[in-house]
Amino acid sequence: MTDDTRLRATVPTITELSDKGAIVLVLAHFGRPKGVPSPDLSLAQIVKPYEAVLGRPVRYIDWEGDAANVAMLQPGDIAVLENTRFFGGEEKNDAAVIDRFAALGDLYVNDAFSAAHRAHASTEGLARKLPAFAGRAMEAELVALEKALGEPEHPVAAVVGGAKVSTKLAVLKHLVTKVDHLIIGGGMANTFLAARGVDVGKSLCEHDLTDTAEEILDAADRANCTVHLPYDVVVAKEFKANPPTRTVNVHEVAADEMILDVGPAAVESLGDVLKNCRTLVWNGPLGAFETAPFDKATVALAKTAAALTIGGTLVSVAGGGDTVAALNHANVADDFTFVSTAGGAFLEWMEGRELPGVAALLQ
């Protein structure tokens, strides 16, 4: 395990239950074994790191003889069960697998928002079989998300970045009906610029989606949502670390250049937008942030958002793998109101979709 973020996130729930005398059985998955057990994907290997994070002993229980081993546990004991995905029926939400899991416990607590978009046996089926509750991390996530898009304080801004429009079409269509300002960055901004008649040179651009981009812009107009596209950009002839670059107006991109970041003038005006907002939802970087110097726009706007959050004028919620990495890179992740480690679940929530793992808890 290279990153213990998700292990640490479970500590408040696990320790609280253990301290109250519950026998805590941890259900989790790792990788995609597709029902075929494999030593590489065994949860036996997380027991030691988990003990270090929890600061107390953790048992490991294989699915062979699981019931007998669970029966030997004492109140307050914590045990990690083997990878739930070693059962082929886990991802199919199979009744027999649900029954097997349910036979081991009296209550079910879901603390994994990151898996809430999956209707699997351990995330959805079990919640309908046993009395079900949200864990502390799940609770914090749902409270933060409700503040961000459920019942947010307006004006609301959303930053949506990333490489392709195609992966975030549903997000963009949903957000224009929910937010006052939609800030589009990353490679997907090029598709919107192309839809507006801008020649983006050899930039990453989904030219076949310009009509769809136009539809989203029209929908935003109807919903009184202001869409912010970059008007100055940082361009280079090749994508590598620290190549020769130019900062130009979007209408001055040469045929052999590619847009790799948002320019400083646009970032400054986006900062002014955030200063007039009360809520921010962020998913995706503004530029190719992993490669210097194309991290500048993302870092600058993230620092502005963090300062406004610390100042108490902005509720800032961010999520998704690239976003977390970008905020960590800018050293501001701890200054946002809430940063979600969830990827797929966060995106589906931004699309306005019902998450099966959450819906099951609300029953």
Automatic annotation (TrEMBL):
Q: Read off the SUPFAM superfamilies from this record.
A: Phosphoglycerate kinase (SSF53748)
Query: What is the top-level taxon of the source organism?
Result: Bacteria
Q: Biological process GO annotation list?
A: gluconeogenesis; glycolytic process
The record's Gene Ontology cellular component field reads: cytosol
- UniProt-annotated binding residues for ATP: 168, 290, 320-323
Q: Tell me the first and last residues of the signal peptide.
A: none
Pathway per the UniProt entry: Carbohydrate degradation; glycolysis; pyruvate from D-glyceraldehyde 3-phosphate: step 2/5
| Catalytic activity of the protein | (2R)-3-phosphoglycerate + ATP = (2R)-3-phospho-glyceroyl phosphate + ADP
First-listed, main subcellular location of the protein, grouped into a coarse class: cytoplasm
Q: Which InterPro entries match?
A: Phosphoglycerate_kinase, Phosphoglycerate_kinase_N, Phosphoglycerate_kinase_sf
User: GO molecular function: any one?
Assistant: ATP binding
* Keyword annotations: ATP-binding, Cytoplasm, Glycolysis, Kinase, Nucleotide-binding, Transferase
Q: Which residues does the record give as substrate binding sites? A: 6, 29-32, 85, 118
EC number per UniProt = 2.7.2.3
Question: Where does it live in the cell?
Answer: Cytoplasm
Subunit field text: Monomer.
Family the UniProt entry places it in: Belongs to the phosphoglycerate kinase family.
Protein name as it appears in the record: Phosphoglycerate kinase
Originating gene: pgk
